[in-house]
Design a protein that fits this description.
Number of helices: 8
Distance between the termini: 92 Å
Strand content: under 5%
Order of helices and strands: HHHHHHHH
Largest sheet: none
Structural class: mainly alpha
Helix content: 55-70%
């Protein structure tokens, strides 16, 4: 059996909002309330009439009933194209502040430990990130991953040559 649409308590507010809507989002949100209640449309038919998905229509209805005019977007704000930083979580200055203690430490030891930098980044962002994110951050600031040499720096070449079998 189909569940009856809720929202009778806000139907008058939705009708007023329908008349006063200035954006398409406000209009769709008011229609998501009015269509099921006034015209008896199902949520699928309402979504089809408004031109949005079923899930988005439900979200619009719930947020209007709660008193919010639009559901909060869960996406990060988009940046302008061409800035070269479209996938970075922090701006350049914040990244420099994050890397400063590690750069000073690397000045003494000569190496950066990526796992420590990643932990600091996760703590600052408040969310987990991939290890590649940390490598990308280091790459933006001129650091690169060094591969080890093919021979040990303390190797004794003469002793190795003597050890080899000679014919």
């Amino acid at each position: 059996m189909v569940r009856l649409a809720t929202g009778l308590s806000v139907i008058e507010v939705a009708r007023n909002k329908l008349r006063e809507a200035k954006t398409i989002d406000e209009l769709r949100q008011a229609q998501a309330i009015i269509f099921p209640l006034d015209f008896g449309l199902s949520i699928e038919k309402t979504a089809q009439a408004i031109g949005i998905s079923r899930g988005w229509a439900c979200q619009l209805r719930r947020s209007f009933i709660k008193g919010q005019m639009q559901p909060k977007s869960k996406q990060l704000p988009r940046r302008k194209l061409g800035s070269g930083r479209g996938r970075s979580y922090l701006n350049r200055l914040q990244e420099q502040e994050l890397l400063l203690p590690f750069v000073e430490k690397a000045g003494q030891a000569g190496i950066l430990i990526v796992s420590e930098i990643r932990q600091a980044l996760v703590k600052k962002l408040g969310r987990t990130t991939a290890t590649a994110t940390t490598y990308n951050l280091l790459h933006r600031h001129g650091w690169r991953k060094l591969s080890p040499d093919k021979k040990h720096p303390k190797a004794d070449i003469e002793a190795q040559n003597e050890w080899k079998k000679t014919s």
